[in-house]
Each structure stands twice: as structure tokens, then as C-alpha cells.
């Protein structure tokens, strides 16, 4: 590609990167979408400074998946739509959809007590108020962020998050507040939600996920476990210091809170379902899933929700941002797991969705990454 000599170095580099990312891409009808997101995508990667970045964008009938950098340092292999990655707490959005799906069929009610689906499990109470399913999915049950304790050095750090350890903690736990009166981000609460949903459906959480979401949507690379062929497509995650992190597997007990794998191609399918206007069969689930159940200004406190932007309300795992300036109403979810950070944001009324993932921890950089993704949504869905 020939560049003008007067072109500043950074724009020239961005255009070169975008040209490389587009090489070999098909579907001429997506050219305008590529033009709209290409430079922003390259700038996101350069600004974040991760080994690799994958971006998936959906707008109406069009979609684009772009990859930058490397799947692992020195691999010289650029990530693409089939590259496996860990989506971390974006997994919670799947749990929220499963709850909506079961509720739409009348198998559960959002206000059902969690104990109804976990017989024999001792659950704490506060203010004579039992914990409900909607308390768990909106982080308003009063649980800590994670199960207390530390992993032993040199061991799989996720082994301690077993269902048996969860039950032992729950038997003596005290809630931080009366359920429903405040919100504090809790992975533990979603581990409990996953167990309750599995109990309500009479199956394992992994099977529930496959039969109700990933199977029907053709998301063959999304789930709790990878086979050997898939493992060869997994990006390497890096810690804050730039060192590679061991690809430890999470337990199935963490499936609802953060244990899922996926690809950008599968995230396109997931976003398309949430943005669909021509799927009457899924409308009942979307209505429940996209509704808002806790308004921030009605809570005593709200802790741990603003990494992707200021949260105004909480839905079934989705965090809502009200329209502001040119930015439309957005439902979003952040994720971070074993060297990966991810973000999904979509405007359900505008048919636009963005998913981005990087393979290195960097909290400061992630805030900028999420801002750029929200900016893309606003750019592609002007008011």
C-alpha cells in the first residue's frame, strides 16, 4: 500500500494495519461497515498494547470480525473469528438468558426463592427476606464478590471454587445487606445462580447452556470445555506483568460466573439473537432478558459495576446505560479471566452490537477500550 509522504506516522500505521486485517475478507456488502470501524479497531489495539485483539461488530444485516497482533507472543499468528478465547464474566449474560428462558416457559419465576431449586442447601437470610433468583442475577443478594480464601501456590487457582466449598461457606455466611436493597458485584452469587438453574431444569449447567443457547444458535465453539483440536486455537492470556498465564480450566460450578470459552464468530451469533427483530419465537425470552430490574438511584449502594461505563440500572446480568448525547441506550457486560479481558455492548433498539477481547490484563487500558467500544455503538447507531 502506497502512503502519502506527508501522512503522519500513526495514521499511516493504522491504515496499514487495517489493510492487513481486511486482506482476504469476503462479502462486499460489508465494505461500508469495515470502513466505519477499521481505524477505530486498529487504534483500540495500539492503545491497549496487548499481544492480540479481536473485534466483532454487527450492524443490521452486516457483520465484521477483525483481528490484530498475535494469538501468543512470537506466534506470528493473527487472531481471527475462529480464535478461541475466554470471555470471563460475559458468561453471566448467558446465565441471565437461561433464567429468562426458563421463566418464559413458566419453569421458574424471577421472584422464586433460590432454596426452592436447591433442596438441602442452607442459605443465609437477612431481614427475614429469602434470597430470590432475581437477587442473584442482579448482584443484590448481599454476597461477597468471591468465595473467601486463597489458592495454594502452584495449584489450579479455580479448584477451590467447587460447589462443595460453596455450600460449606453458605451454611455459615452472613449477608452484607437485606437482599434487594443494595447491589454489590458477586461471582459467588452467579455460581449459586448456575446451580439453581441446573436444579430447576434437572440437568447440568453445561447441558442447559448447550440445549437452550449454544446448540440452537450454532455456537459450536462456545462452552465450558475445549477438545484437543479447539485447544490449538486458544489464544494465550497474559498477566499484568506480561508473563503468560497457565490455561487452567475453571470448574463447571463457575460456568455461570465466568468459566466460558468462545470465539468472535460465535459472539456475532449471540449478538444477532439479542438484536433480532424477526424472531417471534425468541421474543418472550428477550423481553424478560432485556428488562431492567434494579434502578441505581433506588439502591442504598452499588459497588463494582462501572468498568464498562456508568451503570444506570441492572437487568438479568446486563448492565444498562441510558442514552446520553449521541449514544443510544446500551446493554453491556465486561469480563476478565486468566489473562483475557472482554466487553460486549449492544443497542437493542438500533440493531448494533460490539464485542472486543484482548489477551492481557490491563485495567486502565480496559476502561479506554470499553469507552472506544461504546463510541463505536454510538457512531454506528446515531440518534
Q: What is this entry, summarized?
A:
The protein is an alpha+beta fold and 383 residues long.
Computed CA radius of gyration, to the nearest angstrom:
21 Å
CATH superfamily: DD-peptidase/beta-lactamase superfamily
Q: Which range does the strand content fall in?
A: 5-15%
Biggest sheet descriptor: 8 strands, antiparallel
Shape: globular
CATH class annotation: Alpha Beta
Structurally, the number of domains stands at 1
Structural class: alpha+beta
The count of DSSP E runs of length 2 or more, i.e. the number of strands, is 12
Gap between N and C termini: 36 Å
SSE succession: HHEEEHHHEHHHEHHEEEEEEEH
Architecture per CATH nomenclature, i.e. the level-2 architecture: 3-Layer(aba) Sandwich
Helix content range: 25-40%
